[in-house]
Amino acid sequence: MKILVLDTIHGGAVIGSAFESAGCTVDMVDVYRNSSRIDVKTALSGTYDLVTAPVHLDPDHPLIRSQKSPVITHHEAVRTLLGDALPHPMVEITGAQGKTTTAHALASLMENPGVLLSSRGLIRFPDQENGIRMSITPASVITAAQAAVGQGGWLIAEESLGVTGAGDLAILTSGQTYRFAAGKRDALEYKVRTLRSCKNVLLAPGIAWSMPGAVRVDDAAEVEGIRCQIATKQGGGVFENPLLAEEAYRIPLMLAGTAACLLGLDPAPLSGFCGVEGRMEVRKEGRIVIVDNANSGTNRDTTIAAASLARDTSGCETLTLVIGTGEGDGRVCEGFPDAEIADTICRIRPNRLILVGGVLDPPLLPPDAVSGTFVSRAPTLSAAREAAISATDQGAIVLAVKTWR
Q: How many CB atoms lie within 10 A of CB 185?
């Protein structure tokens, strides 16, 4: 079989190599930089039995539009390549927000050895040994599944824009959506479509879609204050955690606890879950409270929520805000544009402001928004964090730099 694999940057090279190992003849095309050995022009003149393309590629790309052979997605290709060599249990997690927290919270409950694939990379449990840094493209599931099978353990895989359908359970963490693939596809609609082939599905609140057998987390889990009670056909449980009072953690913890019950596990240990670095993680250093919300999904809403959490936790209005984008990779996903950063600062009105990267240069802030505020700059998140700690003797610090970590 001769296969054309599109987009070597976002996992295509891994998928292509896997097909070659299976005995197929493969052409791989870098559709964005056109720097692969087989370029777009050459591929257009070829004949293939199968084409696989990422869902984020423009559906009107010439290599898709002109094909007479079947075209499948990278998600579907990975499902085919995995075959029956699957770890158990295998949980796939997708959604516009909350994926990483849900994945880490659920992993903290798993028994025996296993592998967690998240935006933080590949982590082996129970030692939480960091493996290679990987993206959450569907192709990464191949490597993660092989690692999990190799140690006879479970796999929890965070995936972008849908799931492969190979897992025992799929979780959709958010009903939020956006346009992608040159604005021609709806993200939520596509994610829902990939769930239709899954054995078991767990849905976050606010998803206007039904499927026989799917579990809605708000039907299974009830939160009152910092207490969550869960009841499913497979089992139930209770846990208490102060993070349940925070919107950014409430739904991910409900999802993780409910998923655990669906897998026959006790969610009670979630009482000790302290959060994920960069995802509203709260730490205390002396008299200072530090809320770390620096991650690839940082935006205005999460930063405002982090500032509220920081002030509530510290019991003080004094706040240092570290905000901006990481060098090189800060403008990921939907970006963190200057106008949004400026509006965030105006809403929070910090006592001290540290700008990271090239944001707000020249400044776009109204003079009254920074009146009495000490403003400085730092080249990196690390440098800004150190500067913030050195300059802050009371209150709280919020880290809100958009960056991969």
A: 17
CB-based contacts of 375: which residues, under 8 Å, 6+ apart?
352, 353, 354, 355
Ranges assigned E (strand) in 10-108: 25-29, 50-53, 71-73, 90-94
Question: What is the C-alpha separation between 100 and 105, in angstroms, rounded?
Answer: 8
Residue with tokens 């994610």: 191
Looking at the predicted structure, is the pLDDT value of residue 202 above 50? yes
Q: Is 176 exposed, middle or buried (0-12, 13-18, 19+ CB in 10 A)?
A: middle
pTM of the entire structure? 0.82
Quick check: 172 and 102 in contact, CB under 8 A? no
Residue 329 reports pLDDT greater than 50: no
Could you state, in order of their start, the residue ranges of all structural domains in the chain? 2-78, 83-272, 281-402
The position carrying tokens 């992993």 is: 107
Instruction: State both tokens at 188.
Output: 């939520």
User: For residue range 68-97, what is the model confidence (pLDDT) as tens digits?
Assistant: 899 999 999 999 999 999 999 999 999 988
Q: Are strands 25-29 and 2-6 parallel, antiparallel or unpaired?
A: parallel
Lay out the sheet containing 281-285: strands in order across: 281-285, 288-292, 396-402, 319-325, 352-356, 374-378
CA distance 118 to 125: 13
**Assigned superfamily of 281-402:** Mur ligase, C-terminal domain (3.90.190.20)
Task: State pLDDT tens for residues 89-116.
Answer: 999 999 988 999 999 999 999 999 999 9
pLDDT score, position 253: 97
**Mean predicted confidence (pLDDT) in 293-303:** 86
Joined tokens for residue 326: 């990481």
Determine the straight-line distance between the first and last CA of the chain, rounded to whole angstroms.
39
**CATH no. for 2-78:** 3.40.50
What are residue 169's DSSP bridge partners? 91
In this structure, CATH architecture of domain 83-272: 3-Layer(aba) Sandwich (3.40)
d(CA 294, CA 302): 10
Nearest by Cα to 108 from 239, 283, 222, 209: 239
Sequence letter at residue 307:
A
Q: What is the pLDDT of residue 404?
A: 74
Arithmetic mean of pLDDT over the chain: 91
Does position 328 have pLDDT exceeding 70, yes or no?
Answer: no
Q: What is the CA radius of gyration of the chain?
A: 22
**Burial tier of 98 (Cβ tally within 10 Å: 0-12, 13-18, 19+):** buried
